[in-house]
Structures are given as C-alpha cells and as structure tokens.
Design a protein that fits this description.
Elements: H1 4-14, H2 19-26, H3 30-38, H4 48-55, H5 59-63, H6 65-87, H7 90-103, H8 108-119, H9 124-140, H10 144-160, H11 164-171, H12 181-189, H13 194-206, H14 209-212, E1 214-219, H15 224-229, H16 232-243, E2 257-262, E3 271-276, E4 280-285, H17 288-305
Parallel strand pairs: 1-2
Antiparallel strand pairs: 1-3, 3-4
Length: 308
C-alpha cells in the first residue's frame, strides 16, 4: 500500500494550497489531483519528482516509505511472536512484543498480542499486566478488529485470573454467532433470497430473542435418515415436554430453538453442531450416536444453567 493520497492531501493543506493551485503548477487537471487525493488513481511516475519538488519533500516521503517500512517491521514482529507461541516459547514471544512496544508504544495490535502472551505465562504479575493491557485497549482503542480479538481473549484471561463474573459479563458483549464473520460469509456464499436476507438484517437490527437463541445441527446429505435411528428428535421433544416453555434468567426459555438442516457443503458422514450463548458448542462428528448423546447432554446442561 502506498500513502501518496493522504500525503498529497496533507502536504497541500499544510501549504494552504487548493487542488486547482496544485493542478496549475503541475500542468494537470484539478480533477486528476482530486482523484489522487481520494486514492482513485496514482500520479504518473514521471510526475513524482515534480510533486516532490513542489512540496519540498523527497520521493520516499511522498510515497510514505517510512510508514511502509514501519508496517513491514510490525508484520515481522507478529510473525515472529506467533511462531514463538506456536512452539511454546512464551518467554521469547513476550520479549518480542515488549521490545516492539518500545518502538511502537501506541500500537493496539502489539499490545493485544503482548497481553495474550503474558496470560500464557504462570506469573501472577504477568496475568495482572495482561488484564491491564486488555482493559486499556478496550477503553482507548480505535481499531475495531483488535478490540474484538482483545475482548474475546479477555474472557479467558479473566477466568484464568479467577474473575468469572467479569469473564461472563465480557462474554455477553461479544457478537452473537449470527453476527460473526464465519456465519455472515457463509450466508453470503449461499446467495440467500430477499426474504432470508431481510430476516438477517432484522435480526441484527432488533436482536430477536427467538432468532438469537438457536442450536444449529447440520447433517451431510447422507446422514439425515440416520437421525431417526438414534431417536434424536424424540429425545429433544421429550426434553421439551419435560421442561415446558417456562421462562427463566434473561427471559429465555430453558431450551433454545433447535434447527436441523441438510448441508451439502459437509463431507459425507459428518454432523456439525453449533451454539453460542451461555453454553458453547462447536463440534463436528462422524459418529451420529455420539453426536446425539452430546447434543442431549448439552441441552440438559443448558437447562441446568437456566434453572431459576
């Protein structure tokens, strides 16, 4: 990525010049300068020396080589840090991020990765520092992607620190599965019709509780008939009849909705179960018997958690 657009705009404004002024001095149209500043097009390479001389900067400064070099350096930090974590060398990962933070003291990504690395150590003080870094990012950060990652990690960091209430409270601020990247991308790939698309927009807009609280059980095409053999639907109905529809904490029914779907994208003999709320499930099975047992066991656990 080049930084010509933002640099030309900043340099022009710093000198109180209009786009028309720049265009006239360079012998181009004001529309061309406007496109440069919006990033729609780049100046012809033969114009770079003239633009640099106009603003009294080097070509490297105009292109933003300092920012490019910084970005490459940071990418190297993340690559090294992640390699250390994968290999189990947490101490080296912590050192890598701490050193990088001296050069990039306000970089939220480095802070977030340092926090997670510190949380992987057995040092109590490191764990406290990890929490402090995460809370700082969530309070002052502006990068939404980093904040989402940090918020999810903080749930587990709180748990490791013995602060279950904080972990639970933080987890409740995470996006629901209907809003997560994987779910949205899957729905986009499915090329859903207008009606289903509107349903998704409505869910995100108003957070319909019935839509929000659902276990999704996906069967590969050849597995659907096997469902009857293991009495999955009968067992689910028995649990529903047993618990009724009485409300409990947070106004939720004791059992979430269960959606059983045919999924052609699943490999043969596969069952996928997903649910993200006050009890998490995210598994794939080749043994429907085990899948059935786990689903019923999970439903019973959800009932237990939601008991008044």
């Amino acid at each position: 990525m080049l930084f010509i657009a933002e640099n030309i705009r900043a340099l022009r404004k710093a000198r109180n010049m209009t786009q028309e002024d720049v265009a006239e001095m360079l012998g181009v149209s004001a529309q061309s300068v406007s496109k440069w500043e919006r990033g729609d097009t780049y100046p012809d390479i033969t114009l770079l020396p003239s633009i640099s001389n106009l603003f009294n900067v080097t070509s490297d400064e105009l292109i933003g080589m300092d920012k490019i070099n910084d970005r490459n350096k940071k990418e190297g930090v993340f690559a090294s840090g992640h390699d250390y974590i994968r290999s189990g060398d947490i101490a080296s990962a912590v050192n890598e991020y701490r050193t990088a933070l001296k050069t990039f003291p306000n970089d939220e990504g480095i802070m977030s990765d340092l926090a997670m690395s510190l949380a992987l150590t057995d040092d109590v003080e490191n764990l406290k520092k990890s929490v402090e870094l995460c809370e700082r990012i969530l309070l002052t950060g502006i990068n939404e992607k980093v904040k989402h990652t940090t918020r999810a990690a903080l749930c587990y960091i709180y748990m490791k620190n013995g602060e279950k209430d904080k972990a639970t409270a933080t987890a409740k601020t995470l996006p629901h599965f209907r809003e997560c990247r994987e779910t949205v991308l899957e729905q986009l790939e499915s090329e859903a019709g207008i009606k289903e698309t509107d349903t998704n927009i409505k869910f995100i807009a108003v957070g319909d509780a019935d839509e929000q609280d659902a276990i999704e059980i996906d069967f590969a095409e050849n597995m659907v008939p096997v469902c009857t053999e293991h009495n999955l639907l009968k067992k689910i109905k028995a649990l529903r009849d047993e618990t009724g529809a009485s409300a409990c904490r947070e106004g939720l029914n004791r059992l979430p909705h269960i959606r059983i779907r045919d999924k052609t994208d699943l490999e043969p003999n596969k069952v996928r179960v997903r649910y993200y709320a006050n009890y998490m499930i995210d598994d794939e099975y080749t043994d429907l018997g085990k899948a059935t047992d786990d689903i019923i066991s999970s439903l019973k656990k959800i009932i237990e958690l939601r008991s008044v």
